[in-house]
Amino acid sequence: MSRRIVPIGPYHPLQEEPEFFKLIVEGEKVVDLEINIGYNHRGHEFIAQKMTYEQIPYLVERICGICSNSHPLAFVLAVEDAAAIEVPLRAQYIRTIIHELERVHSHFLWLGLAGHFIGYNTVWMWAWRYREPVLDLFEMITGNRNHYAMNKVGGVRRDILPEQVPLIEKALDEIETKTHMFTKAILDDPVILARLENVGVLPKEAAISYGVVGPTARASGVAIDVRKDDPHCAYDRIDWNIIVFKEGDILAKTKVRLLECLESLKIIRQCLKQLPEGPIENRVDEIAPGEGIGRAEAPRGEVFHYVRSDGRNSPVRHKIRAPSYMNIVSNEVAVKGYSIPDAALCLAAVDPCYCCTERMVAIESGKVRYTGKELIELSIKKTEQIQARYRK
Amino acid sequence: MNELAVKLQDEILKKFPKAKIFKHNERRLYITVPKEQIYDITYFLHKEKGLRLSIATGIDTREGFEILYHFSQDKTGTFFTIKVLIPKDNPNVQSVAPIFKAAEWIEREMYELLGINFIGHPNLKPLLTSDDWPPDKYPLRRDYE
What is the pTM of this model? Predict the structure, then answer.
């Protein structure tokens, strides 16, 4: 059968960041994938080398709008590692709470979009409806719904006030009930299962070779989680579990994310209970020469920051690696062998930060074959076919 | 330090006698090796010891280009950072991408931003810069303006 190319992107398929996926297809089946990135390259590493340690958290916060706590957290951990700076215990707990709230809102965002791609707009609406209370919590604690500006070298910028604690706990109760309801509704639905099960499988060997991180790795049986392996903040003082599944398909990735939300809520509750008294930051006057590595478990996996200091006000070198950098390449394996209607979901399953769904075109011999809207329609049509089968 | 990490540290010294180990703290080790050994030590760490390449960092220093391969031993939470120094007048080093896919993109990135040539890379072409970027301009070099 003749091979054809279905380009997705660069501006852009289902993801927020512009990437260019070239699906090489035989009929309906995807046989190969080429990935081009760089359409959104802003030179953060270069800019950071010209900014001060006080300014960089604001810069790296703007790398991504969804995990806007993970990057500054990894950066301050790197600087604290390089210069051996102690952080007060209360600040460690507050960092943990913000970090976990971020995970809940990010996983809900993914869930909603995944629902939308398979034609379950109810899932989309509901997931985003219950993401709102999390954003409200952020607004109450940090003053912002996004870009929380909580981290600084040596501590955090804002305290959690005693009168806020019962309000947070009340909101957590609501989120927990809804997460349970959601998990049951999704895992009980035969049509959703048919769309997600055994689709986009990433085998364990491939996961190791590609070095994938976060829920993508944990759904393929690779039990890595920075929070457990290399405990930072207050994670080693809290009782919680890593969620690991062996299957590697999209269903496993969904399960990992759903169950992780529940673990996150558990962590936040314990943090609020144990929250110690004391200062929220240590004064840092200068950064000693040296090098340091900081890593944090973002909703999508390990965020890595490396900082080298020569004692001046700004770093000599600042290396940033976001989790999607490792995860997106693994699509080469995960999408092969599946049909075009599944491709949209497969490419989105690693959760590579997304948003604009309208910008996808497929060109065949110079003519537009599928637009982004049509690809989603294709996906929805497949769901309807499966639904019809179940009705018979 | 964790027992497993200490054991691995000893094994590295035994297998690669030229390696110099600097212990920054309990979970961060920096190991300098000659650039000729980078393929062998990567093979040893990933294939035999199961370490994961988190990422690599390329730095332009006065002495030459430094590449830091950050290997994460996930069982102990220890970072084994392998350092190699590449002379500026001959910026060539053996690629580790044939060993595992994780190194493919980052080597392409260092190739375009620092101008280091990775010998044996399966697909060495620019990753991030635009198609019309001049081929002799390297943004992360010290002399870049």
Answer: 0.89
